[in-house]
Specification:
It comes from Lentzea fradiae. The protein has a single domain, classed as Alpha/Beta hydrolase fold, catalytic domain (Rossmann fold, 3-Layer(aba) Sandwich). The protein is about 30% helix and about 15% strand. It contains 9 helices and 7 strands. The strands form 2 sheets. The chain has a 5-stranded parallel beta sheet with strand order 1-2-3-6-7, with helices on both faces.
Length: about 220
């Protein structure tokens, strides 16, 4: 199962799973893409919603950024999902009070309505940091990103606690040039993080074959 980051949709994993011969599940997180909204956004509420669609069998969960925190939350076993391997890519480890305040401010802003689908897709892509086609919805007065901006208020994750609670093998990875997730920050959580050379925060989009190698896919 592959979980996207804040503002994105499951489509960002297309190139990772393109040649995958096993079974896979790529949902849109609540409040994103074509998934419905929830009353309150927390790592637990997101994990609980995702758990509802996971088959009751052992699963590897790969998550990017916010999706990586949700993956770690699922790996705790608290939500009835049997996670055997958890791969977190580009998870932001350190948060300043200023960064959290900015995120809370974004969560409180009203959604912006735009005149055309193309404008909404452009804004949705800027918010996600990657191109998204399925991240817009038609609304009264025009078009808007599907992202429920309240998800920005999810808060600071307790990453040391989640890593300790995980009942699965935990692998943390990031792009070599990811300013949000430098290697030394990941080393606070795991002794040997994986670093993808030459890529930034969205390693799964910039170098999908690198992420695929963590899943046992042959290089292509």
């Amino acid at each position: 199962m592959l979980l996207h980051g804040l503002g994105a949709t499951g489509e960002v994993w297309e190139d990772v799973v393109r040649d995958w011969h096993g079974s896979w599940l790529v949902p849109d997180l609540p409040g994103h893409g074509r998934s419905g909204r929830i009353d309150r956004y927390s790592f637990g509420s997101l994990a609980a919603a995702v758990a509802e669609v996971v088959p009751r069998e052992p699963v590897t969960v790969v998550g990017h950024s916010l999706g990586g925190v949700v993956a770690l939350t699922l790996a705790s076993g608290w939500f009835g999902v049997d996670v055997t391997r958890c791969v977190g890519v580009g998870i932001k480890v350190r948060w300043t009070d200023e960064e959290l305040a900015k995120a809370a401010s974004l969560a409180a802003r009203p959604a912006k309505v735009l005149a055309t689908e193309e404008e909404a897709a452009e804004r949705a892509s800027r918010m996600a940091g990657v191109p998204v086609r399925h991240g817009v919805s038609e609304v009264d007065g025009g078009w808007a990103p599907s992202l429920d901006v309240r998800a920005f208020g999810v808060g600071r994750p307790d990453l040391p606690g989640l890593v300790m609670a995980a009942k699965a093998e935990v692998v943390l990875a990031a792009g070599e040039n990811d300013p949000m997730c430098p290697r030394e920050h990941l080393e606070e959580l795991v002794p040997e993080p994986v670093v993808f050379p030459g890529v930034g925060h969205n390693a799964h989009v910039e170098s999908p074959s690198s992420v695929g190698l963590l899943l046992g896919q042959p290089a292509r």
